[in-house]
Design brief:
Elements lengths: L1 E10 L9 H7 L7 E11 L4 E5 L6 H8 L7 E6 L2 E2 L4 H4 L3 E5 L15 H11 L4 H14 L15 H15 L3 E5 L7 H18 L2 E6 L2 H7 L2 E6 L1 E6 L1 H11 L3 E8 L13 E7 L2 E8 L4 H8 L3 E8 L3 H10 L13
Parallel strand pairs: 3-8, 3-9, 6-7, 7-8
Antiparallel strand pairs: 1-2, 1-4, 4-5, 9-10, 11-13, 11-14, 12-13
Helix pairs in contact: 4-5, 4-6, 5-6, 6-7
The structure holds adenosine-5'-diphosphate and magnesium ion.
Length: 342
């Protein structure tokens, strides 16, 4: 179980140079503007569920994961893991929680570069106190599941980023932590590796009942894996089951999304008052128009479109990505820079 209670983190502002008078004065006590990373974040991740923390770049995802590992101290508020404060009582949860930072970042320096994958895994299993025979069983199972069997004698250094990420994930099958925190686990990975990693995450949840916190800005990933998600950008924006959030959005904001390909320019003004929201972008010489409309608006839309050279119209389903961009674009936190003075 994981509970975030008013979790807040402001980072100190960067100090440019102590040799210029203004920076020195700021450093010596003038109120300084701090960088908000998390503001009063409240949520509960239940036992055995995959809980998604969804936020754009800079939303505070990695800060959250670092607080869970006592690598960063919150400014105020608490993060409880299995009832223990992640920072003040870290020794009580050590060993029960495991975190994988995405993008090939072995933040804890667990892996020896010039040592084989298998030896690395055996060594780390030993560190976690897993008996030898059991460790061997788990290592074989993990390597099999992640299609890494042929890499077991390879030096860790020689693995690609995707393979390293898989080896890291293999550790969670070996250690079998109660709480697993995955910080953008598939960032930069190709679609095949991504799928393998998704399968293992689902396996961990199903087979071992692991409580999983998954941060991502990949909405498809959240939709495919998470039981519940929380949209946030420093502050909480919305929380619920992925499907519920989509339905809420469909009911409240738009019932249909049309993707229209047009030759020539588009005047978004033409759609004022008849489209809920418009995105326009140019690709391969065509203008793509994404229109979010109410069902009963179709007639008005088509009458405007008669003035355009329309190449194609597609009726698309509203995805979680649409919900996410929509609510993020209206959230005041998106552009929040500075909120608190020291
Ligand atoms: N060590 C740090 N010092 C100062 N600011 C930081 C530091 N780490 C992160 N930040 C800032 O905190 C905010 C949240 O960052 P982060 O948690 O890395 O977001 P995310 O992982 O969602 O992209 C960003 O504005 C980022 O620039
Ligand atoms: Mg991050």
């Amino acid at each position: 179980m994981i509970e975030s209670v008013n979790l807040t983190k402001y980072y100190p502002p960067p100090i440019k140079s102590l040799f210029d008078l203004k920076s020195l004065r700021d450093f010596l006590g003038k109120p300084r503007e701090k960088i908000p990373a998390l503001i009063d974040l409240n949520f509960k991740g239940r036992e055995g569920e995959i809980f998604g923390l969804l936020g754009p770049n800079g939303a505070g995802k990695t800060t959250f994961c670092k607080i869970a590992n006592a690598l960063v101290i919150p400014t105020r508020g608490n993060l409880y893991i299995n009832g223990y404060d992640s920072v003040k009582e870290h020794d009580k949860i050590k060993g029960k929680i495991f975190t994988i930072f995405g993008g090939d970042r072995d933040l804890f320096g667990l892996f020896q570069w010039r040592v084989s994958v298998e030896k690395n895994l055996k060594f780390i299993a030993e560190l976690w106190g897993i008996p030898k025979v059991e460790a061997e069983k788990r290592i074989n199972y993990a390597l099999e599941l992640l299609n890494l069997k042929d890499k077991k004698n390879e030096w860790y250094q020689k693995l690609s980023a995707g393979m390293r990420q898989k080896v890291y994930l293999a550790l969670s099958l070996i250690i079998q932590p109660e709480v697993l925190i995955l910080d953008e686990p598939t960032v930069y990975l190709d679609v095949f590796t991504k799928r393998e990693i998704w399968d293992v995450i689902l396996e961990l949840s199903k087979e071992f009942g692991t409580t999983i916190i998954l941060t991502t800005h990949n909405l498809n990933e959240a939709e495919a894996l998470c039981d519940r998600v929380l949209f946030f950008n420093k502050r909480k924006i919305a929380e619920g089951k992925p499907k519920e959030l989509i339905e809420k959005f469909q009911a409240l904001k738009a019932e249909r999304k049309l993707l229209i390909k047009v030759k020539g320019d588009v005047k978004t003004k033409d759609f004022d008052g008849i489209a809920e929201r418009i995105n326009v972008y140019i690709q391969n010489g065509l203008t793509y128009l994404e229109l979010y409309i109410k069902r009963n608006n179709l007639k008005d839309i088509f009458s405007v479109l008669t003035n355009y050279n329309v190449v194609d119209i597609q009726n698309e389903t509203v995805t979680l990505e649409d919900v996410f961009t929509h609510i993020c674009s209206f959230d005041s936190c998106v552009n929040s820079k500075v909120e608190e003075k020291s």
